[in-house]
User: What shape does this take?
Amino acid sequence: MIKILIDCFGGDHCPQAPVEGALAALAKNPELYVMLCGDEAILQKELQGKTYDSSRVEIIHAPEVIGCDEKPTDVVRLKRNSSMMKAIILLRDRDDISAMVSTGSTGALVTGVLVRLGRIPGVIRPAFCPILPTMDGGIVGICDSGANVEVTPAHLRQFAIMASLYMENVYGVEKPRVALLNVGKEAEKGDDTRQEAYKLLQETEGVNFVGNMESRDLLSGNYNVVVADGFSGNVLVKTTEGTALELLKKLKKEIFSRTIYKMGALLMKQMFTDMKEFMNYQNYGGSVLLGTSKVVVKGHGSSKAIAVEKCIEQAYRMEVSKLSAKIEAEISKYDHYEE
Assistant: This one.
């Protein structure tokens, strides 16, 4: 039985989305056991009237809630009874618990995990790795996307190793094609950090490094992993998501601007529906925090039940595949463990 903690408070649609998402994941995975963290009375009320296997559901009472405007270091020190911190501490202290999922404050989660949970031996810094769909029907992971604003070449190499193993073991991508986010495709492009990282990635046997990538090619399907510092990666992901959403809004506005466009849209209704689903981030789960001693998945703050369900499935597959052990084994082959 794989036990996964669910932080049920902190996101925009809590606790309804985490509870419904957890029960949906439970119905699909007979070896899954979920532990719902949050105010017990509220969670009991949320579960009323729902059909589920009660022998695989447990409530962990945690009455405090973390606000997105709270200072992460204060949260770690002062809010040990919050749903997020209670989950992190339980994950650290109990060997029978495999993972946790949260849609709460990103800053509080990263700080709490680093201070209370810790890293896989050999990992310099954990990194976020969200998934986006590509134009050829595949997916691409971006690592890092927000955990580490400043990085060294050694950090970037570890991000590439961890993300490659993640894509291969969790999504079945054979020999993931890894690119380094840069201002141009030529090997000599970028600052000293990018140039040195390029050399390190070329020397890393466990990584299928294919060179630099310009941001416009993120969704081309030519890459399975894009390595970046947390600042650039976060901007890349949010710009891509924002552009897609605005294009959909523009398309909808244009369709309703003329009768002939509306008639044409009726004939293409299914195509537009499929396109909307393809671009909906809710269908791709959350951003896993690679490199932590146990599995941690961060869902978007506005995650609905389907997104939480996908986050739980990500955590489940990571644990089944023994990803953490594989990351530790691969990282140990290289000696660039500088802080």
